[in-house]
Amino acid sequence: MVTRCIVLSLATALMAGTSWAQQTRPAAKPAVEAPPAPRPPAGAAQPVNIKLDFTITDQSGAGPAGKRSVSMLVRDRSAGSVRSGGNVQLEGKGRFSATLNVDAEPTILEPDKIRLRVSLEYLPKPDQENAVSGEGRGNLRQSLNVIVEPGKPITISQASDPTSDRKITVDLTATILK
Fold first, then answer.
1. Could you give the number of structural domains in the chain?
2. Would you call 26 exposed, middle or buried from its count of C-beta atoms within 10 A (0-12, 13-18, 19+)?
């Protein structure tokens, strides 16, 4: 019986010691947090082309508006560029350069949304009467990120020339070709 009491006392002491040790041990260091999971890659480009039709309307005073058009075909999530330029000689006024450049990068977001990055540079030839120093030319440079709906025309910019009554408007229609 004494042996049994000693064994029970030792067992109780061991259990109490283990419990005490567990309570007095310093807390384990928190595990190092794993870095956040990388974002899934952006969706793959869809195997379709997007037709971009730009119309630039150049209006000065009550006269007829001048219109310039640029059309380009660009694959989803790709970049496209159109460069158009030349020189014009105006009688007795000199030689002037004219430029129309468009860069575009469309991304189809949903069947009814396209994100479009577009840069446009437009420098028309001067009017014959304003050609002495090239004034009255209505130079336009812009860089935009817009969301458009396929097939729906939208005005993406409208700018007034700060030196005259000239107004330049840029309209766009984006069409997904399947």
1. 1
2. exposed
